[in-house]
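Reopening this ticket.

The earlier resolution said the output was attached, but the attachment link was broken on my side. Pasting everything inline this time so it's all in one place.
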Amino acid sequence: MGFDIALAQQSISSSLGVIPYPSKGQSPNQQNQDEGECYAWAKQQTGIDPVAVAGAPPPPSGPAVGGGERVRGAARGAVGGAAIGAIAGDTGAGAGIGAVAGTMAGGRQARQNRQSQAKQAQDAKAGMVRQFNRAFGACMEGKGYVVK
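Inline output:
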């Protein structure tokens, strides 16, 4: 038995992670045609293009991202450190130590915020793909396929 080039290409359903069974004896060519029609229909119904969703860039990361957590942390730390320094007799040293500690705490908060944003973006993508796949599956079932 020879290797069929068409089998090497990934079908629409397999790229979506959907498995349709041709319960009415549809040919592979008919299934490909039905998948193309259902892809277009699901895209129109949901407004979601899973190719665009998958290719969407992740949220930006790096030191420029964030809501100023390090600066706010440094300011809070400096104020708290100055108060402690005043009690100990050296306001300036206390403020400096507090600012360093606050900057570190702010950096930790910035990293946590970025991780949270990345998870939210990933969850949103997954939800859109699930919605699209439900529409795609409904269309395929309407064309006589059992979809899992």
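Reporter confirms the inline version is readable. Residues 34 and 101 are 61 Å apart (CA to CA). Strands lie at 20-22, 145-147.
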